[in-house]
Amino acid sequence: MPTLRESTGSIACMEHEIFEHIKQALLVTLNWQAPTVSMPRKLSSVQFTIKSFQRHFDRVIASETEGGYMADVIESKPYMQERLDQLQKDHERFRERLRKLIPDLNDIKEWDEPRFEDVCRELRQLIEDVDRHNLQEVELLQ
Asked: Could you tell me the pLDDT band of residue 86, with boundaries at 50, 70 and 90?
């Protein structure tokens, strides 16, 4: 029978896998350039996908901080506290960026394509930053 720690670890792993799929779906939607897709359709798709991205991002963060890998690292590598603190600060910065970008995205009008492209660019940058952050987390666990 798996221990609580093993169960928590497998849950966190599954949440990361799901989040990775959602992140890829968001990138596909952001990069959608087919001429048959109108801007309102793309906007609607990005709005839909970003909601799932945000929900799963919050779940991944919760699984990491609430009995997840962060507690294990502190226990086994207390000298890594400063790096863990920085990663937790990243989590808050990412949440704040999402809190700003989602209303911006929802306020875009169908005819405001330049603004829409700006928000899409910011979302792509956020995804790049989250990917870089995830690599730092993996390095910490090794």
From this structure: very high
